[in-house]
Amino acid sequence: EPEVTQTPSHQVTQMGQEVILRCVPISNHLYFYWYRQILGQKVEFLVSFYNNEISEKSEIFDDQFSVERPDGSNFTLKIRSTKLEDSAMYFCASRLVDNTGELFFGEGSRLTVL
Amino acid sequence: QKEVEQNSGPLSVPEGAIASLNCTYSDRVSQSFFWYRQYSGKSPELIMSIYSNGDKEDGRFTAQLNKASQYVSLLIRDSQPSDSATYLCAVNGGATNKLIFGTGTLLAVQP
Lengths: 114, 111
Description:
The structure holds 2 protein chains of 2 kinds. Chain A is mainly beta. Helices cover 0% and strands 49% of the residues of chain A. Chain A is built from no helices and 11 strands. Chain A has strands spanning 5-7, 10-13, 19-24, 31-37, 44-50, 53-57, 65-68, 75-79, 88-95, 104-105, 109-113. In chain A, the strands form 2 sheets. In chain A, strands 2, 4, 5, 6, 9, 10 and 11 form a 7-stranded mixed sheet that branches. The termini of chain A are far apart. Chain B has strands spanning 4-5, 11-14, 19-25, 33-38, 45-50, 54-58, 61-66, 71-76, 85-93, 98-101, 105-110. Chain B is globular, with a radius of gyration of 13 Å. Chains A and B meet through strand 5, strand 9 and strand 10 of A and strand 5, strand 9 and strand 10 of B.
């Protein structure tokens, strides 16, 4: 069964360092999303991406965040200068271009900022 | 601010019983409603979707939608210990059909 894959599964970094989280969405999906979940809190929307550009972003997604689709398969989230409060699980999700809206999530990347 | 509200629980039910999970949402224009299951430390897993008023059944799961009351529910029949997880209600919203999640209800099925 097709699935969304994410790497790394866990990354530990020092505050102020840059981090890149990688995702391979399901191959025929065209909408891509990043969500985050701080431990014990809700799953929060960060950004959506379609047709090689950001289509919507939340107020969490400030200038330190960026997304890119560098090739035909990968979708990345970059955090330029990590802060302690960036520690969270980051989930990539993708969906078809249809009206069902069903999102399929990857297993997540746990980011720990020290 | 579009909101999705859930009772955080925990909801404790004995094995074999029916678990009833509830959710309300604030955005009247939402058209798609989802229930995800999330085990501790894992990613959300889609278990049910519902788009029109009424009931939708899939195996032991039944989703119920009432758009007039802005209310979605999930019934789990014959609950099993393996159903113990956090159940996330999600509602579509915004221009890109992003999902807005509730805080989730922790379900504990007691053997």
